[in-house]
Structures are given as structure tokens and as C-alpha cells.
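Friendly challenge for the regulars: who can give me the C-alpha cells for this chain first? No prize, just bragging rights.
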Amino acid sequence: MLNRNSKPKSVAVKELFGTTVSTRQAVQEFAKYVPSKTSKVVIDFDEVEFVSRSFAHEFLRFQKTHPAVEIQNCSKDVKKMFDTVRRSSSSAYSDEDITDSSINLADLSLHF
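First reply, four minutes later:
Bragging rights claimed.
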């Protein structure tokens, strides 16, 4: 638990990945800096120029399960990607509908 005088921990994305973040696995790196789901941690996107759609999707899923994680200093382009993923994820399908399983081509023929 944070007391009033303690500052939240801050993680600089640029120091971990540079100015471009493009993989879902990068989110796993953030988990190393978040000691618990209730620990306040600020993820600082200062000087990050690009995040991929897959990274943004995975990061937002991570943030749902870690509500004390905040983001700051997003560039216009990074913010736009997060906003786009938020809109498309909430309107098209829920995260529970997404699986990592593959489908057989024969299974697809049942739908045609």
C-alpha cells in the first residue's frame, strides 16, 4: 500500500524497448515491474513513436487485470493506437472470444 508521501514506481518504455514497441511479448516485460495487481506503477511512453496494434491490445488486456497501472506521456500516434484498439475490441468481440488456437481448413468448409 502506498502512503501519501511515496511516489509510484515509473517504468520508461523507451529504456526497455526503444522508440518502437511491436510485440505482445513486450507486455510480459512490464509484468516484471509490477509487483502486484494493486501496486501503483506508471508506464511512461515518453519519446515512444510507435506501438503495434498487437502490443496495444495485449497491453490493454494487461491493464484490465492490473488497474493500478497507469500510462503517461503518450504521443498522438501512440494514443491513437490505444484508442483504436479500445474501440475495436469493445465493439467487435470480447477478449474472452480470442484464443491462441488454430483452426483446420476442413473445419472452415463447414461454414461455406
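The two ends are 55 Å apart (CA to CA). Helices lie at 13-17, 25-31, 53-65, 76-92, 105-109. Your move, everyone else.
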